[in-house]
Amino acid sequence: MPLSQEEKKYTYADYLKFPSDERWEIINGIRYMQSAPTWQHQAVSIQLASQFNDYFKGKPCRVFAAPFDLCIPELDESDEEISNIVSQPDIVVVCEESKLRKTGYFGVPSLIVEISSPSTARNDKLFKFNKFEKAGVKEYWIVEPDTKLVSVFTLQDNNRYGRPELYTETDNVEVSIFPDLVIELSTVFDF
Fold it and tell me: Domain 12-188 is in which class?
């Protein structure tokens, strides 16, 4: 949730000064405090990250799980000027190692997974969705542990996300941008 009706536009330089024992995100220059994830969130995250990690062993792309900072620059912003920090997405797949620096990744990842909760749903489905689409993230997943539902958005030729592919806990997801990667949701939602 945003803190207040602040007028200040926060940047990555500000983010680095936030207390290290607090979790924050900055979206469109507005800071949002994050709450601790539930155990179901953590269980889903570990299972997904494990499957992605197993697939990427020995390949040029890498998978990172929160806590891991993602900074998406606009135009010619320096690192310190970036105001679109989607700090610590749950899972990020990056394929350009040269953009890994400081506390995370400075660029547009290939795939992002957000594990949504009632308190984060608005940001995940609106603000982040629009940011990731505009930035050109090829695939964006919204995972909902409560309903055991996964929505997969894939960037189309018109640089917009198409209708989501929807999956339940009994499905396997064939990842479109990595054709031989299949994520088994029965193990992801095994709780």
Answer: alpha beta
In order of 107, 177, 191, the CA distances from 128 in angstroms are 15, 20, 27
Secondary structure of 50-113 as H, E, C letters: HHHHHHHCCCCCEEEECCCEEECCCCCCCHHHCCCECCCCCEEEECCHHHEECCEEECCCCEEE
d(CA 153, CA 160): 9
Longest CA pairwise span in the chain (Å): 47
pLDDT along the chain (191 residues), means of 10: 64 86 84 88 97 97 94 78 78 96 92 94 92 95 97 97 97 95 97 88
pLDDT at 27: 82
User: Is there a contact between 63 and 91 (Cβ–Cβ < 8 Å)?
Assistant: yes
Tokens representing residue 131 in the block: 């940011």
For residues 166 and 153, give the distance between their C-alpha atoms in angstroms, rounded to a whole number: 9
DSSP sequence for 98-162: GGEETTEEES--SEEEEE--TTTHHIIIIIHHHHHHHHT-SEEEEEETTTTEEEEEEB-TTSSB-
Residue linked to tokens 């795939």 = 111
